[in-house]
From TrEMBL, chain A:
GO terms for molecular function: ABC-type sulfate transporter activity. Coiled coil: none annotated. GO terms for cellular component: plasma membrane. It is found in: Cell membrane. It is a multi-pass membrane protein. SUPFAM superfamilies: MetI-like. Belongs to the binding-protein-dependent transport system permease family. CysTW subfamily. Its main location: membrane. Pfam families: BPD_transp_1. PROSITE patterns: ABC_TM1. The keyword Signal does not apply. This is Sulfate transport system permease protein CysT. The lineage of its organism: Bacteria, Pseudomonadati, Pseudomonadota, Alphaproteobacteria, Rhodobacterales.
UniProtKB/TrEMBL annotation, chain B:
GO terms for molecular function: ABC-type sulfate transporter activity; ATP binding; ATP hydrolysis activity. The keyword RNA-binding does not apply. PROSITE patterns: ABC_TRANSPORTER_1, ABC_TRANSPORTER_2. This is Sulfate ABC transporter ATP-binding protein. It comes from Paracoccus amoyensis. PANTHER family: SPERMIDINE/PUTRESCINE IMPORT ATP-BINDING PROTEIN POTA, SPERMIDINE_PUTRESCINE IMPORT ATP-BINDING PROTEIN POTA. One of its GO terms (cellular component) is ATP-binding cassette (ABC) transporter complex. GO terms for biological process: quaternary ammonium group transport. It comes from the Bacteria.
Amino acid sequence: MTSVAVAIPRSGRTRRVLPGFGLTMGLTLSYVGIIVLLPVLALVLKGAEIGPVRYWEIVTSPRTLAALRLTVTAAAIATLFNAAYGLLMAWVLTRYCFPGRRLLDAMMDIPFALPTAVAGLSLTALFSANGWYGSILAPAGISVVYTIWGVAIAMSFTSVPFVVRTVQPILEDLDPAVEEAARSLGASPFTIFRRVIFPAIQPAFLVGATIAFARSLGEFGAVIFIAGNLPMKTEIASLLAMIRLEEYDYNGAAAIALTLMLIALILLALSNWLQSRMQRKGGVT
Amino acid sequence: MSLAMSNITRRFGQTEVLRGIDLDVAKGELIALLGPSGSGKTTLLRIIAGLDWPDAGNLSFEGQDWLLKTAAQRKIGMVFQHYALFPHMTVRENIAFGLTVLPRAQRPGKAQIAETVQRLLTFLQISQLADRYPSELSGGQRQRVALGRAMAIEPRVLLLDEPFGALDAQVRRDLRRWLRSVHDSAGITTIFVTHDQEEAFELADRVVVMNGGVIEQIGRPDQIYDHPATPFVARFLGLTVELPVVMKAGRAEAAGFDLTALPRRALPEGPATLFLRPADIQPVADPAAPFHLTEISSTGALLRVVAESDSGCRIEAEVPRRDGHGLETGMNVSLCAVAGQIFPGLASQRASSPVAAETTPHALKENRL
């Protein structure tokens, strides 16, 4: 009997290889609690304080509705563009060898590093009627500054690295033998991409596009310079929330913020669900 | 003759990976390309598959120039070393792939594809795995699926790159027999690459031994085993004891050795090198002989015996344990060679030693990138 008792370790603690589980886990949870969960909770509570009727009134007021519609539409345009362009960029960076590839690779991160206000200012300068691009577009009757297109361009500028950086590592890890197998079985290059390569990168591609969309929804600094911020026309939701705050209308600000957060959360949940469905099917090795 | 290669040459940068390969493969034959890593065997296989092109030489199949055809046009079935199954498709979808990507005009109907796949699943004994994904299969099962996928397009030639390399010993033996039976009943001309001599000899009709980008010997397994054509083949096939001998009237002589069991050879008088397998050397107690036993260790079935002469010559021999009762360390023995291969001149000591062979593939990989 005693020998059996001795053979069993006293607790799980003794079996852990890495020390400091308590400390590191505690720090992580405190961080998540204080920096992430608490503000979100505060926002939800503040929204709940307003009451559903008042909340609905604020959100469905013409100005808020217009701002939300603009934000979501512009973010969707920016995401569609980024999904296509980001995939192309990731492809070029992983598949071809050309001089300056590393430089181009490093340049992909500029939108992350650049202060968004700087991005907004330079985009405005480029697209204004006497700017480099604007002077070409204006005679053709296309105006970008102070329109939804300006908003979308600013959003796509700041969020394009998300797609590139999520797809790139997956493309790099693809086993070239899988493509060779498809080739030897008679598949054309386009078929290989459609049926072999794209299914492999699809989960990462979706995640990248979703994060890019979420980021676009909340983009502030880059957008407000180029948008012109005309109420009902080119006023984005987060700017409207700030305007409400400056008017000491805390309820109005909280209601708009809560709505933006809900849209982002729904999107994240949707992408997670899509991903897990695909992983089950794909059986990631 | 179905597949003919002549003078195929391929270099990656400075490295000559293939240096003039001439090989003819008959219809329905099962051929093994055997050699150490870096010998160019996989490159040759990839050239036949149309995944790589030679710098010079000819490759034709039934009179057609295959170098003018793409991989898809050649209709070859390739099984890759790590199987390269499509991870997001089920076994059934993997096997059907080659049929579903055919141009619309040649593509069989859905029902017909399903029927072909089902027939292959049954033939390869993997029907129960049809709806699994590759990540849910064992190595041996993946191997079978990879073969099924390659066979679905009714290939004219089947190519396998190290087909059993990533499997454990028991599965390897089972699959080897299974592959042989698949080949015999399907009758497809098959070429496979291996570095495992036992695998090549058990499976193949003919074995092609390659080294450093050239073919060292082509022959039936027994032929190669009994009569290795070059010192490299001899060493590669386990004739690891290299003994300097003197030829006199067609017979080899060496101090302390009894070489009378070896057949006469039409070789010039003078120095030569005798290659022996440790198992073909029998120590015989002889008080007057210059060799004495210094080490005896058992591997279970065999006794590994080391004999040293007074002049510092060290010979390893293997004796079945039940025949080795009388052997003791320190006793004087003469060594009797039962079989061996003699090459004229003094063989350059380990010109192609394993160390040299190991450095080549790295250089090769770098050049491929």
